[in-house]
Design the sequence.
């Protein structure tokens, strides 16, 4: 059976990919299955660069296909911040609550109509002997003035979707998966994989 590694320790992300690849006969594993691998330093200046760094490093080390993602929040009033620093915006301790509180603090005096933002996700698929593929997905919204909802993680409780009148943290897992930045990026990746044919993951 063909295999692919998802370069993450996030069980939720792994489940998303398993639901897509298992019907194609592709076995999905994650960094949970390779505890000896150290975390790869994200030194890129864009989401795409970081995703490629992670995917190509692991694909070379393990000699099997690897999918890596890098994603985050981009706030227009903050000139695109937190951006690639989303996970560590309030410090290297990577605390979700501290990160979102910092964003709320910086937007205290910003009116609703100027609180536009988007979640951005870049995916890189690195396969030994083939050129790395990158795709991306986004979702547009506004930054709320306070937290709403208990689902999701990261900045979800303050990312408001006007058309649904809810934050990302108020959506079910199914709703989030169908419209999120990561869900949209996965859809784009699947288009590329299907166009390449069924033997895309088979090692020669």
Sequence:
């Amino acid at each position: 059976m063909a295999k692919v590694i998802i370069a993450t320790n996030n069980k939720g992300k792994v489940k998303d990919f398993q639901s897509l690849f298992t019907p194609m006969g592709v076995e999905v594993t994650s960094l949970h299955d390779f505890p000896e691998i150290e975390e790869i330093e994200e030194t890129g200046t864009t989401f795409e660069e970081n995703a490629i760094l992670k995917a190509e490093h692991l694909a070379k080390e393990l000699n099997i296909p690897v999918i890596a993602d890098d994603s985050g929040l981009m706030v227009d009033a903050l000139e695109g911040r937190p951006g690639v620093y989303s996970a560590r915006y309030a410090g290297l301790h990577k605390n979700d609550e501290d990160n979102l509180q910092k964003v709320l603090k910086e937007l205290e005096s910003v009116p609703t109509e100027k609180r536009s933002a988007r979640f951005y996700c870049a995916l890189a698929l690195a396969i030994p002997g083939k050129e790395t593929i990158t795709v991306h997905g986004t979702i547009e919204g506004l930054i709320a003035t306070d937290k709403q909802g208990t689902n999701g993680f990261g900045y979800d409780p303050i990312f408001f979707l006007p058309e649904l009148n809810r934050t990302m943290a108020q959506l079910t897992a199914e709703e989030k998966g169908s419209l999120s930045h990561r869900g949209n990026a996965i859809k784009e990746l699947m288009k590329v994989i299907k166009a390449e044919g069924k033997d895309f993951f088979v090692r020669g």
